[in-house]
Specification:
By secondary structure, this protein is an alpha/beta fold. It folds into 5 domains: about 35 residues, no CATH class; about 230 residues, 3-Layer(aba) Sandwich (Rossmann fold); about 45 residues, no CATH class; about 110 residues, Trna Endonuclease, Chain: A, domain 1 (3-Layer(aba) Sandwich), CATH 3.40.1350; about 160 residues, no CATH class. The protein contains 18 helices and 35 strands. An 11-stranded mixed β-sheet has the order 14-7-8-6-3-15-16-2-17-1-31, sandwiched between helices. Helix 6 runs parallel beside helix 7 and helix 11 runs parallel beside helix 12.
């Protein structure tokens, strides 16, 4: 840098003007002649380590007769044929930045290292500006659109809000965390297209080193031929493949020929018959004028080594594996990647889970897996798909592992609040209360013991940040309301105690206080969502179930499901809509609205039955037999185990809708208990919006 350059930079800084880009490069010049820079680039990487909270543990029971594989020696099973030890696969719901940081810096890192480390990462991050991550619900012969959640919209705005610079910032930090997690012999495959491939190649060179670049794989797929006036039709995606080091695992991948005719056609040679035999062969050029005899039966059996151009069809709508997820990739694509860059028993990961294709293929290929996604619907889609894989493997007598659904739960909420208040307790309590009331559009009130705000003639209680709203808390609210002659109150909470039933709420109403329970959405932590009124507080849904008891066995019958969800303002919609039809959700009903050319509106309720709302339900027949234990680090940095006060939901029986079979079973199998006594049965319902509702039933044998 010249003296003249320095003087000019000082003048610009004093004047408060922006520095030209060439000066930025000069200020940060080093031995490198190229510097990767964009607006918003940060070298710091999140290093928070939050404990993982267990939502569900899923393991289709194995029968003694099914235990044909060798891997059963790796982990024991209990009397029900369910896995007791060994690695449990992980499906994690939440922000993958916090998840990656918690995996890299928390106690689970030790578990990963014990399994030999993370050998392979495949990711298919969003790379289309303006992409829509909504999905459709088929009901009553009609299609209802379920819009992406606000939390997904916010994440997407953060990704693309400032164009490519905000996308690079989002990807850079996550890729650095992935690099940290990968084993030395690990690999990463990043799936993208023409929009971002050049940018991501530079990021990966920066993080992994250009010397560890292996391939830019072109995935070529078929489609409709279109005549374009401005260029050739785009017909491939790119998959960037990097090793962490020159030790990375790689297995040459062979693609078998479909037939002898295909082999001959590709070789463009007429086969010959070997003299004295009936074996066919072709002669290939061996160099220097030599010819090599190649027998067709051997060549076809061996196959051809795959190069970096892959011709694989996109997922067909009628394919058996299709789960109607917008960005679903074919299993054949993931099978090729997983076989090439991992071995049986290896641990692999996908941090943009989508429909769960990576995990499904990994399970079938006897790999262990971790997969994560921000979207609730993605997690639910993957859950159903992976249960289907377990059932498929069980039916064929093959080995499989249990998997658990995790999230960061209350720890994620605490992190958001600490981040907003720098950990100051009093400031945190005040800010938390103001935050929730503002999102709910309620006015704060003082001089009340249990009530914090009011809205449209109703009083409001804001539930705690990190524990469920309990029945005793509702009784305290009820007593204050009765003393002050208040008749209506809304109770807002992130979680609600399992014992809260419609009957209990009805009893409070009959005693003079109408109590409505509402879930606080994650969106309250995003100021933009609150300002735009996008933080929706849904009413708590309820389910009813009947116990059929005979001797020491119990069957559970699902008998009712009640919800008051509303997604659309129907009056506003009716005024703005043109002739045609639209499917909306209002007050617990899915309604088709039709408007003809004369402006006449007809409404048809599509959810004619309570079970139209249900997509999945499951049972744990002995809910309180397994405590939820989390691993945390104490003040000395040591990993210790801690009981959360909750129990692990062991998914022992489930019924759910699939594209192939949309029917539900409403009565479970008969579960036999080994000992007489009192048991708590938990019933869990996941509705068509992907929201969980649970109920505990006590049985006595």
């Amino acid at each position: 840098m010249t003296e003249q350059d320095r003087d000019r930079i000082l003048e610009l800084i004093k004047a408060g003007e922006k520095l030209p880009k060439e000066y930025i490069y000069k200020l940060f010049a080093d031995e490198e002649d190229v510097f990767l820079f964009w607006n918003g680039r940060k070298e710091e990487v999140t290093n928070i380590a939050l404990p993982f909270h267990s939502i569900e543990h899923i393991d289709v029971p194995r029968k003694e007769a099914d235990r044909k594989g060798d891997n059963f020696d790796l982990f024991a099973t209990d009397l029900r044929g369910r896995q007791q030890k060994g690695w449990t696969n992980k499906l994690i719901w939440g922000d993958n930045k916090l998840i990656l940081s918690s995996l890299a810096n928390g106690p689970m890192r030790e578990e990963i290292e014990q399994e030999g480390g993370l050998k392979l990462i495949y990711i298919d991050p969003p790379f289309a500006v303006g992409a829509d991550f909504g999905f459709n619900i088929e009901i009553g012969g009609e299609t209802a659109e379920k819009k992406q959640s606000i939390i997904e919209e916010i994440a997407y705005r953060d990704t693309w809000g400032k164009g490519i610079s905000s996308y690079l910032t989002m990807m850079y930090e996550r890729l650095k965390l992935m690099h940290n997690l990968l084993a030395e012999d690990g690999s990463i495959y990043v799936h993208c297209d023409w929009r971002v491939v050049n940018y991501l190649r530079l990021l990966l060179d920066d993080i992994f080193g250009s010397g560890n670049f292996r391939n830019s794989i072109a995935w070529n797929y078929s489609g409709w031929n279109k005549k374009l006036n401005y260029g050739f039709e785009k017909r491939y995606d790119s998959i960037l493949f990097y090793g962490k080091s020159n030790k990375q695992i790689f297995n040459s991948y062979f693609e078998k020929w479909d037939s002898k005719e295909e082999y001959v056609k590709r070789r463009k040679q007429k086969p010959l018959i070997e003299e004295g035999t009936k074996r066919e062969y072709v002669l290939s050029d061996g160099g220097n004028g030599t010819r090599i005899k190649r027998y067709l039966d051997e060549a076809i059996a061996e196959g051809v080594v795959v190069d970096d151009v892959w011709s694989l069809d996109k997922l067909n709508n009628s394919a058996k594996e299709n789960v109607d997820y917008p960005t679903q990739k074919p299993e054949a694509l993931l099978e090729r990647i997983i076989k090439a860059s991992s071995n049986e028993g290896d641990l692999i990961a996908d941090f943009f889970c989508g429909s769960g294709t990576t995990a499904a293929v990994a399970e079938k290929l006897e790999r262990k897996w971790i997969t994560t996604d921000l979207g609730r619907f993605s997690i639910h889609t993957a859950r159903k798909r992976l249960i289907g894989v377990q059932r498929e493997l069980q039916a064929s007598g093959k080995d499989f592992r249990a998997f658990e659904i995790l999230n960061l739960g209350k720890y994620e909420r605490q992190f958001f609040m600490d981040d907003l208040t720098n950990g100051k307790r009093k400031a945190k309590e005040d800010l938390y209360m103001d935050l929730i009331l503002e999102a709910y559009k309620a006015k704060r009130i003082e001089d009340h013991r249990t009530l914090h705000g009011s809205k449209a003639g109703r009083f409001v209680n804001v539930g705690p940040l990190d524990v469920p709203v309990t029945q005793s808390r509702l009784m305290d609210i009820f007593e204050e309301c009765r003393q002050k002659l208040y008749t209506q109150v809304d109770v807002l909470g992130f979680e609600f105690e399992m014992g809260l039933t419609p009957q209990f709420i009805q009893e409070l109403k009959e005693k003079g206080v109408s109590v409505t329970l509402k879930y606080i959405p994650k969106e309250v932590f995003d100021k933009r969502a609150v300002e735009k009124g996008q933080a929706k507080f849904f009413d708590v849904a309820y389910l009813n179930a009947k116990v059929h008891q005979k001797a020491n066995s119990v069957q559970i019958e699902l008998t009712d499901f009640v919800t008051h969800y509303t997604q659309d303002d129907i009056e506003e919609l009716q005024q703005s809509m043109r002739a045609g039809s639209k499917v909306v959700i209002e007050d617990g009903q899915i309604i088709k609205i039709e408007k003809d050319k004369n402006g006449i509106i007809n409404r048809t309720v599509l959810t004619q039955n309570w079970y139209d709302w249900i997509d999945y339900w499951a049972i744990d027949f002995n809910y309180e037999d397994k405590q939820e234990i989390i691993k945390v680090k104490n003040d000395k940095g040591e990993t210790v185990e801690k009981w959360t006060g909750n129990y692990l939901f062991e998914n022992e029986w489930q019924s759910f809708r699939t594209k192939k079979n949309p029917k539900l079973e409403f009565t479970s199998i008969a579960h036999e208990y080994q000992q007489p006594g009192k048991y708590k049965v938990m019933v869990k319902v996941v509705d068509i919006l992907g929201i969980d509702t649970s109920k505990i039933i006590e049985v006595k044998l």
